[in-house]
């Protein structure tokens, strides 16, 4: 019995240390896995059906320009779209590897998507059911921008689903016919 107690006493400390080390190792592995997991983002804010009149202009469209090819083109393309008054909210890279331009919106028939197709040669369109009303332009290695598009607006029938923070351009007031026909008063 004395030998058994002596063996237990000798082994008790190393076994306890090994169990504690296993516990700490498991905790470290669990923590590392959870630390590298993607952070859940806020859900997208749904777009708002907005009356834009008869015409959708670039100033009403919010765009993300993402490079998916081997040539860095997103920053240049974003600048070119801004020159036409598009609201570029982000430019950067996408994980998707592409050869040509793909324009992604709520659906393929979205007027915002249609408007952007006038600015890129042979662009493919996709709809992914997104709710926020922002359009993605995914640039591939062979993407070609049209520097002077012939059409820069789209006619619409009814409201368009735009992001809630979209600021519509204010129309410039035109003088009414009664104001324009009145003779100017002379100062005495």
User: Low-confidence parts lasting 5 or more residues at pLDDT below 50?
Assistant: none
Q: If helices are DSSP runs of H or I spanning 4 or more residues, what is the number of helices?
A: 4
* Overall spatial form: elongated
Number of E-type strands = 9
Which structural category fits the helices and strands?
alpha/beta
The residue-averaged pLDDT reads: 86
Q: Give me the oligomer status.
A: single chain
Radius of gyration: 30 Å
Distance between the termini: 128 Å
Roughly what fraction of the amino acids lie in strands?
A: 15-25%
Query: What kind of sheet is the major sheet?
Result: 5 strands, mixed
Major sheet: arrangement of strands: 4-3-7-5-6
Approximate helicity band? 25-40%
Q: Give helix and strand order, one letter per element, not per position.
A: HEEEHEEHEEEEH
Please give a structural write-up.
The chain has a 5-stranded mixed beta sheet, covered by helices on one side. Strands 1-9 form a two-stranded antiparallel ribbon. 30% of the residues lie in helices and 19% in strands. The N and C termini lie far apart (128 Å). β5, α3 (111-117) and β6 (124-127) form a beta-alpha-beta unit. It has 188 residues and is α/β, with parallel strands linked by helices. It is built from 4 helices and 9 strands; from the N terminus they run αβββαββαββββα. It is elongated and about 100 Å long.
